[in-house]
Amino acid sequence: MARITPVKTSLFRKFLELQGLEFKRIKGDHEIWKRPKLIRPVTFPNKDKEVDPFVIESNLKTLQMEKEEFLEIIKNL
């Protein structure tokens, strides 16, 4: 199984846009992204230059996406 490493915040934003999510707002130091039919919004801290692996994995569960699929998309961005 592949391991997720920290990803630059700008790259994670591009990934979310490719998945059809739209930026909705900032609450505190977190960005909120949504798309129809998601159980909950995707959130991540915007104060850091990178998104931590545990935050990515949590959001992948929300998106119902496998780690391998995410890594393939990130590799191609």
General description of the model:
The longest helix is centred in the C-terminal third of the chain and has 11 residues, at 53-63. With 77 residues, the protein is of the alpha+beta class. Strand 3 (30-34) and strand 4 (42-45) form a beta hairpin. It has a three-stranded antiparallel beta sheet. A two-stranded antiparallel ribbon has the order 1-5. Helix content is 40%, strand content 25%. The chain contains three helices and five strands. It has helices at residues 9-18, 53-63, 67-76, and strands spanning 7-8, 22-27, 30-34, 42-45, 50-51. The protein has one domain (7-76): 2-Layer Sandwich (Metal Transport, Frataxin, Chain A), CATH 3.30.920.30.
* Fourth-level CATH superfamily: Hypothetical protein
Overall SS class: alpha+beta
Whole-number count of domains: 1
Strand content: 15-25%
What is the β-strand count?
5
The biggest sheet, with number of strands, parallel, antiparallel or mixed sense and barrel status, is: 3 strands, antiparallel
The CATH class, by name, is Alpha Beta
Total of DSSP H or I helical runs spanning 4+ residues: 3
Instruction: State the strand order across the main sheet.
Output: 2-3-4
User: Radius of gyration over alpha carbons?
Assistant: 12 Å
The portion of residues assigned to helices is 40-55%
CATH topology: Metal Transport, Frataxin, Chain A
**N-to-C CA distance:** 21 Å
Which H/E pattern describes the elements? Answer: EHEEEEHH
Mean pLDDT: 95
Which CATH architecture is right? 2-Layer Sandwich
